[in-house]
Task: inverse folding
């Protein structure tokens, strides 16, 4: 009995720092954020004005100055959430399988492929901005390859019809490294005798890939898609740094809109709206994850 | 050529194409950092015609890089340290010890994966303003540490669970305390997982821009991303200097990763299997 008590106390002592930090940084912020989503406040007046569900209604349909923009940001966010994980899997799975099939230079290539993860952030975003300028290297390359009609004279990020997809591709570029590395570890865990047995039974390499390797990697795919959707919903650093939602709101996403409402509206009472939008984003994240889990289970 | 050889050539061709894509912005970063102000304007060529060190020197002198580096190191270092200490203890308890509330707490931490950072950003700023933490380095470190909780707890708990229980039983029979078992048995066996956590924490923290932007006002406390930003906020953007500054900012991270790579990959393998 005494030793059991001792284990309880030890256990609580070990989790104490994590729980204490969460009590200060987590419980309070989540609680007050949720409360604020039912209030109107500009950050300076001493009191909040309770407005019930008004903030949510304003964001979703009631406020004509707000709702259309939110809806457009939601549509952009959805495109990012679907396209980024999908393209990431479509690129990193074949990349990992190919890399796993060769011997020479494998280690070097693995490091090269991982580089975008290590350097991603404001520094590479600025480099991409430079490359996507009207006279940047992407346009120059297209022109010199005789594909000048594809070049974007006003720059890839300034053209409303290319801006969002350009950012999506850069997001994929920075998501491929971890996905490839995860697939590689998954491939190395596959029992070689299984692949060998299938080959002896006369299965063509393509069949081995489709019937054995891809199904065995499904748990990995599930993890990559799950984290990809989460990152696409939560992350907006690239949108803030590269376009700040422009041109004309064409690359605005929900997280960026939440950020704008929280910090860049001066004395307007938009803090409650920002909180409400943040919680809508949370609900979206949970729903998308559940939908994903169902979809992947059916595939499996 | 035999079929196998054709296949291998095709494989290497595909792999090389992606390698170039992977390095693409980085190559231009290096190239731009050695170009003059005039050359960067008609910069369709990767290799600078008249390579110059002036750009890197001017950029270095123009920004308070020493301050930015020191500040970024403080923030990233403290965050990584905090994450490793706080969550290795908690994860050890979740993985090994039995006590009331263990399961509920574990799932609480994992469930936080779904709370977007932006949703709690504003409350964090309001709270820190009240506590007098806003605008300090500690004001960045605490929410950064707290924010890594879900993934860290998930990975470290899995790593500790993969250690055979018999080792703990044997150490206990020898009269070792729980703290001693944790430090002498579990930590050495799960080192790769800790390196993985360190890299997965350090990289985003080094590049963090959003919370730093809205909380730091004192320029002497600026981290590298904020310093870099000041180059591009003017009316005329000198891309050769922006690229040089970007290069200066990413090189230490690349060096660190090259140094830790072996452990990092092993840790990821362990985490996935665990």
Result:
């Amino acid at each position: 009995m005494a030793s059991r008590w001792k284990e309880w106390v030890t256990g609580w002592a070990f989790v104490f720092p994590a729980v204490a930090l969460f009590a200060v940084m987590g419980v309070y912020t989540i609680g007050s954020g949720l409360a604020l989503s039912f209030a109107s406040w500009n950050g300076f007046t001493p009191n909040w004005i309770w407005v019930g569900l008004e903030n949510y209604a304003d964001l979703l349909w009631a406020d004509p100055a707000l709702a259309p923009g939110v809806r457009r940001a939601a549509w952009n966010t959805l495109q990012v959430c679907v396209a980024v994980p999908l393209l990431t899997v479509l690129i990193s799975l074949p990349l990992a399988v190919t890399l796993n099939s060769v011997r020479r230079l494998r280690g070097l290539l693995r490091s090269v492929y991982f580089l975008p993860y290590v350097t991603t952030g404001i520094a590479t975003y600025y480099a991409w901005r430079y490359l996507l300028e009207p006279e940047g290297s992407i346009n120059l390359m297209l022109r010199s390859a005789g594909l000048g009609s594809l070049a974007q004279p006003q720059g890839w990020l300034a053209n409303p019809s290319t801006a969002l997809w350009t950012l999506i591709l850069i997001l994929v570029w920075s998501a491929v490294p971890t996905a490839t590395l995860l697939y590689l570890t998954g491939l190395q865990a596959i029992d070689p005798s299984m692949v060998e047995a299938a080959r002896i039974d006369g299965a063509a390499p393509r069949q081995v890939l489709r019937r054995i390797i891809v199904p065995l990697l499904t748990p990995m795919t599930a993890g990559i898609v799950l984290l990809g959707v989460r990152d696409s919903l939560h992350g907006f650093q690239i949108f803030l740094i590269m376009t700040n939602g422009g041109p004309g709101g064409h690359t605005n996403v929900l997280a960026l809109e939440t950020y704008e409402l929280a910090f860049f509206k001066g004395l307007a009472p938009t803090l409650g709206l920002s909180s409400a939008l943040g919680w809508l984003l949370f609900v979206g994240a949970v729903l998308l994850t559940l939908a994903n889990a169902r979809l992947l289970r059916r595939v499996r | 050529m035999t079929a196998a050889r054709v296949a291998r050539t095709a494989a290497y061709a595909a792999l090389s194409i992606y390698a170039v894509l992977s390095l693409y912005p980085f190559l231009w970063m290096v190239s731009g950092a050695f170009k003059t102000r005039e050359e960067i304007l008609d910069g369709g060529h990767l290799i600078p015609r008249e390579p110059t060190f002036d750009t890197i020197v001017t950029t270095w002198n123009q920004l308070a890089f020493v301050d930015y580096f020191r500040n970024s190191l403080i923030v990233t270092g403290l965050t990584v340290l905090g994450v490793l200490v706080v969550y290795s203890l908690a994860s050890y308890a979740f993985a090994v010890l039995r006590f009331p509330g263990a399961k509920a707490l574990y799932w609480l931490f994992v469930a936080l994966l779904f709370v977007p950072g932006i949703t709690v950003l504003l409350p964090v700023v309001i709270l820190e303003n009240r506590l007098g933490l806003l605008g300090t380095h500690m004001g960045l470190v605490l929410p950064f540490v707290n924010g890594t909780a879900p993934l860290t707890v998930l990975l470290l708990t899995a790593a500790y669970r993969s250690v055979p229980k018999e080792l703990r039983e044997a150490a206990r029979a020898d009269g070792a305390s729980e703290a001693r078992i944790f430090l002498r048995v579990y930590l050495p066996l799960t080192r790769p997982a800790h390196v993985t956590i360190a890299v997965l924490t350090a990289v985003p923290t080094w590049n963090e821009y959003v919370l730093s932007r809205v909380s730091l006002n004192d320029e002497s406390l600026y981290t590298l991303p904020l310093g870099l930003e000041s180059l591009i906020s003017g009316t005329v953007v000198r891309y050769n200097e922006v690229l040089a500054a970007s290069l200066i900012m990413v090189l230490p991270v690349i060096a660190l990763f090259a140094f830790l790579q072996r452990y990092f990959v092993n840790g990821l393998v362990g985490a996935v299997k665990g």
